[in-house]
């Protein structure tokens, strides 16, 4: 018997506070538990160890807060988006807040193409940082050494090719970087390329916006100001 069309739900959410330090895998588990407690009928995979069918299209680096995360849920049976919001929101821990829930069209893709970040900077450092930004943007390439977390192998990554724009606005460093099948820069690598120590700064970063190849109902999605606390 042929199966019916997939019913997929796009859940936009913010993550801040201590919760930003949980890993990608733990974020998925957090939502698995919250969806189960909210009695939301999530489709499960086949096989001996069926898993809930949900995904985060652009994993967030540990320690970075976000105003614009996306979770894709595949439903086993129909359930209205507003009902999912009502059931899911009370099950989420402090630091995780839903901003939008809607159903995706059958063939609607959610492939990330760019991500924007914001970092508060100290008074008095804008001048030197502005000069480093100028040099960075003028360069054809800026190589940063990347260490593979699994193998320990090191390789050079051209961070410049992924960064589209960088600027200082109201005591915040703002930049947008591209995301593609060929990869992207890690936020900490961008900080290092601009002469900032990721170990001291990355935990203050906020991912403010993620762009996709097909807009996710932009008129229905709130655009909160970056939470830089």
Question: What features would you highlight for this structure?
Answer:
about 230 residues; alpha+beta; Alpha-Beta Plaits; 2 domains; eight-stranded mixed sheet; two-stranded antiparallel sheet; 5 helices; disordered C terminus
What does this structure look like?
Helix content is 20%, strand content 31%. It has helices at residues 24-37, 81-88, 126-138, 187-193, 198-201; strands at 7-15, 54-55, 65-75, 96-103, 112-120, 143-147, 154-158, 163-169, 172-178, 206-212. The strands form two sheets. Strands 1, 2, 3, 4, 5, 8, 9 and 10 form an eight-stranded mixed beta sheet that branches. The protein has a two-stranded antiparallel sheet with strand order 6-7. The protein has five helices and ten strands. It has two domains: 7-110, Alpha-Beta Plaits, CATH 3.30.70; 112-212, Alpha-Beta Plaits. The protein is an alpha+beta fold and 229 residues long. The model is unreliable at 217-229 (pLDDT under 50).
Summarize the model shown:
The chain has 229 residues and is an alpha+beta fold.
């Amino acid at each position: 018997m042929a199966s019916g069309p997939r019913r997929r739900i796009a859940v936009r959410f913010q993550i801040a506070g201590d919760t930003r330090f949980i890993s990608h895998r733990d974020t998925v588990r957090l939502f698995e538990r919250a969806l189960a407690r909210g009695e939301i009928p999530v489709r499960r995979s086949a096989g001996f160890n069926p898993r809930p069918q949900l995904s985060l299209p652009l994993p967030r680096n540990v320690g970075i807060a976000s105003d614009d995360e996306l979770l894709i849920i595949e439903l086993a049976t129909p359930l209205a988006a507003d009902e999912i919001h009502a059931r899911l929101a009370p099950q989420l821990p402090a630091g995780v807040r839903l901003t939008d829930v809607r159903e995706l069209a059958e063939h609607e893709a959610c492939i990330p193409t760019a991500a924007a970040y914001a970092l508060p900077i100290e008074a008095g450092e804008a001048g030197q940082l502005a000069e480093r930004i100028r040099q960075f943007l003028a360069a054809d390439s800026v190589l940063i050494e990347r260490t593979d977390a699994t193998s320990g192998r090191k390789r050079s990554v051209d961070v410049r090719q992924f960064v589209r724009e960088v600027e200082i606005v109201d005591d915040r460093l703002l930049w947008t970087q591209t995301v593609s099948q060929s990869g992207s820069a890690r936020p900490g690598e961008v900080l290092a390329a601009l002469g900032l120590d990721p170990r001291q700064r990355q935990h203050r970063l906020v991912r403010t916006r993620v762009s996709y190849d097909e807009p996710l109902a932009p008129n229905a999605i709130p655009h909160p100001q970056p939470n830089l606390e």
